[in-house]
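Design job #97: recover the sequence.
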């Protein structure tokens, strides 16, 4: 008989108490040998709760079951597989559909008889009741603590230190927290991070600041004397919160806020406004903000309009004319700017005073983002394990501490500063851009230009001529600055 085994551990404590993956493997292999079964596959989920069946190895096992790759599923204990009665019923129905039997190596559970199926369902119901009772008790306890202004553990936030369970203002750190809130009224989070790093200021863990860590600070109500619990960030996916978010005054008589509640409320409005501004358009204009008018010094911004025959006309407007009324330069077709821009990429010399540009970090940014997403998933699982009662408060805090450290390290890699690049490297890169230009999307073109150029100054030599056969404008790039 072809046998598949499934193993799972959710926490370090389970490994110590005899439920380790190795211990399960030994028991399951011995059981399979005693039954004369041949183990054809081993499915293992490490660090996952049995709260649901959304586990990588379990999902693969289900797919293989549908392909009829094994005849019996063997587990160490039922709770290694599921703790939810509905999930159990779904799995049992799937097993029945594909003629797969179920067996526990340490419990009298089998699915070959009606009595066996009834018994396993009763036990699963009791296990789910116990689990949900524990989860409700933990959740209610955390909720009551937060509603009364008490913190639910965790390290002291930047700007404070923890002494005997109390948060005490850190003189040096709190000064920089105040600086961050003050600067955000007129500066972006990335700009603030660069200022802090330039001044040698470091985070609680001694890391450099990033726009992520600045925004995290700006969103923390503790600095205005309030605590928050049951908060889910935008990046945390589709998981729903249990109840409403709690933000209440902290219960500590000698607590010293860094800012007022009014300043914090105002900052939250700014964060919300700027988040919408950052994603307000899916149109990408490569030269917007980079192209500068030689006549008035204001920047060009991109726009488009649909033509009579269905295609679209992309062009750039001088802000000096259309926003400030101090210039008379007409709109310029994007094709005219592209033609002149690509021609300057043939230059054999680069500005001798410009020797640096932004370069990619050693690791692909997209891979870094994937790793960050994985860490975020681990954080969600850690919170679920804590609320489910699968790990203690100390274990949860230790796990979150490690994950936060990993997250900050990855964020640091994403915030790579400008590095020196030789003129030869820059020339080679510019030539490569020209070669691939028309194969790039508008979004990629924009990222490329904005990553390499500080500004491109444009002079209108000959205005466009409308008519049956329109003649595009002739422009000249009189100056450019690399980053």
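Job complete. Output follows.
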């Amino acid at each position: 008989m072809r046998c598949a085994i499934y193993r799972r551990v959710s926490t370090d404590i389970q490994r110590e108490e005899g439920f380790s993956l190795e211990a399960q493997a030994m028991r399951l292999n011995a059981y399979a040998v005693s039954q004369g079964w041949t183990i054809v596959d081993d499915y293992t989920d490490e660090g996952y709760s049995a709260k649901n069946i959304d586990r990588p190895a379990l999902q693969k096992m289900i797919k293989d079951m549908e392909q009829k790759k094994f005849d019996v599923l063997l587990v160490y204990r039922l709770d290694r597989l599921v703790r939810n009665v509905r999930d159990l019923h779904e799995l049992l129905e799937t097993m029945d559909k594909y003629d797969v039997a179920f067996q526990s190596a340490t419990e009298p559970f089998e699915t070959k008889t009606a009595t066996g199926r009834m018994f396993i369902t009763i036990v699963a119901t009791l296990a789910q009741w116990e689990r949900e009772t524990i989860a409700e008790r933990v959740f209610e306890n955390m909720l009551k603590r937060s509603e009364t202004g008490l913190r639910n553990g965790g390290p002291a936030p930047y700007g404070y230190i923890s002494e005997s369970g109390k948060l005490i203002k850190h003189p040096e750190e709190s000064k920089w927290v105040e600086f961050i809130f003050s600067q955000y009224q007129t500066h972006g989070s990335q700009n603030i991070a660069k200022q802090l790093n330039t001044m040698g200021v470091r985070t609680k863990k001694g890391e450099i600041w990033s726009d992520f860590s600045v925004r995290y600070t700006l969103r923390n109500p503790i600095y205005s004397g309030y605590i928050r619990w049951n908060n889910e960030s935008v990046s945390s996916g589709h998981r729903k919160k249990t109840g409403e978010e709690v933000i209440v005054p902290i219960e500590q008589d000698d607590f010293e806020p860094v800012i007022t509640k009014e300043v914090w409320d105002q900052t939250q409005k700014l964060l919300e406004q700027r988040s919408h501004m950052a994603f307000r358009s899916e149109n990408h204009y490569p030269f917007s903000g980079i192209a500068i008018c030689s006549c008035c010094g204001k920047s060009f911004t991109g726009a488009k309009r649909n033509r009579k025959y269905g295609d679209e006309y992309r062009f750039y407007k001088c802000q000096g004319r259309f926003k400030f009324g101090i210039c008379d330069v007409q709109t310029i077709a994007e094709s005219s700017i592209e033609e002149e821009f690509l021609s300057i990429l043939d230059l054999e010399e680069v500005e001798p005073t410009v020797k640096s540009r932004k370069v990619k970090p050693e690791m692909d940014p997209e891979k870094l983002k994937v790793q960050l997403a994985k860490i975020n998933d681990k954080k969600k699982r850690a919170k679920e394990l804590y609320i489910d009662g699968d790990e203690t408060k100390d274990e949860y805090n230790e796990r979150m501490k490690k994950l936060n450290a990993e997250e900050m390290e990855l964020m640091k890699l994403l915030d790579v500063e400008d590095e020196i690049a030789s003129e030869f490297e820059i020339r080679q890169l510019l030539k490569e851009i020209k070669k691939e230009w028309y194969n790039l999307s508008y979004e990629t073109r924009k990222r490329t230009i904005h990553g390499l150029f500080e500004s491109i100054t444009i002079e209108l030599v000959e205005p466009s001529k409308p008519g049956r056969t329109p003649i595009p404008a002739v422009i000249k790039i009189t100056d450019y600055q690399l980053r």
